[in-house]
Amino acid sequence: MTKERKFGLGKGLGALLNDTPDTSYQRQQPIVSESANSGSLGSISKIKINQIQVNPFQPRFEFDEEALKELSESIKLQGLIQPITVRKVGDAYQLISGERRLRATKMAGIDEIPAYIRTANDQQMLEMALIENIQRENLNAIEVALSFQRMIDECSLKQEELGDRVSKNRSTITNYLRLLKLPPVIQAAIRDNHLSMGHARALISVEDSSSQLFIFQEIIDKDLSVRKVEELVRNIKQNGAKKPESAKKVDGVSFQYQKIQDDLSSKFATKIKMKVQPNGKGSIEIPFLSDDDLSRILELLDW
Q1: Which long-range contacts (CB under 8 A, 24 or more apart) does 5-11 make?
Q2: How far apart are CA 121 and CA 17, in angstroms?
Q3: What is the pLDDT of residues 214-233, one digit of tens each?
Q4: Catalytic one among 4, 66, 70, 99?
Q5: For the chain: N or C, fewer Cβ within 10 A?
Q6: Are 44 and 115 within 8 A, CB to CB?
Q7: Cα–Cα distance between 153 and 168 in angstroms, integer?
């Protein structure tokens, strides 16, 4: 049986929910109201699944189908242990948290689901959705950083306030946000788990992107440990040691052109490829995924 792990969401989430529900359902059978109409704040009610709208602020778009099937089979056998959380919207309900549980319950062919009913405005909905997303066990560092940035931008939070919401200190928040300033090729490596957070922390302490790219390539080529990377960073800082632009290349492109390639990739939100010949001639390739993606790129080119 696959069991969902319960995470502590920080003191800020309790304030958002306006009350602290009894979580004893994890140790004993929950007391569930027979209908949503009889449910009160803090109680658990059964709600028809077809009455529940998805959370429009959900930052997560991909769900592991195999894990959903496992959870669905568990729900068929044992029932849903942890209720979802919803808010009342007119005659229907809107999901606040628990989309994975909702999807798995639907997959199990069950038409009702236990839920906490909360009161929440749009900003609280966004905050709670982002906080739940941040607490996912398999979230990579770039996804965490993007969620932090969204909370700052869209919820108008300062870093200290964000730290309270997610129970992390300001320096941790700052380090995650600084990942978003790394060259796109390095961000992609972190996102795809080719680079650990330890490596990333060492890289963000380096100021210029050309040095970051050089160190990144050394990590990839030589499979450097975090300690070795920290030593390399110290040497570069102390001695100002830099490899000549032409000494190393990433994907056949010198670091000078790699910077241009990365900037273009950021601008067009796609992986730009540059090919440069020794005489200075070359080409730039802009791939697109669909007709709509091509239209988006053409608009950016003011075509």
Answers
A1: 5/137, 6/82, 7/135, 7/137, 8/167, 9/131, 9/132, 9/135, 9/166, 9/167, 10/131, 10/164, 10/165, 10/166, 10/167, 11/164, 11/167
A2: 11
A3: 888 889 888 899 999 999 88
A4: 99
A5: C
A6: yes
A7: 18
* 245 noted as active-site residue: no
The tokens 């273009």 sit on which residue? 264
pLDDT in tens, 60-100: 656 778 888 988 998 988 888 888 888 888 788 888 878 88
In the block, tokens 């592991």 appear at 64
Range of 276's domain? 207-300
Residue 275 DSSP symbol? E
Give a yes or no: residue 98 inside a domain.
yes
Lowest mean pLDDT among 30-39, 151-160, 218-227, 272-281: 30-39
Distance CA 85, CA 114 (A): 9
Is this model's pTM higher than 0.90 or not?
A: no
Task: Decide which of 101, 120, 139 is a domain's last residue.
Answer: 120
| Amino acid letter, 25 | Y
In a domain, 29, yes or no: yes
For residue 229, give the nearest of 189, 198, 253 by alpha carbon: 198
Tokens 């080529």 found at: 221
How high is the pLDDT of residue 10? 43
Main-chain dihedrals φ then ψ at residue 162, nearest 5 degrees: -60, -45
CA 32 – CA 79 distance, rounded (Å): 13
Kindly state whether residue 173 falls inside one of the protein's structural domains.
no
The answer to whether residues 115 and 216 belong to one domain is no
Amino acid at 8: G
Residue 128 is assigned to a structural domain of this protein: no
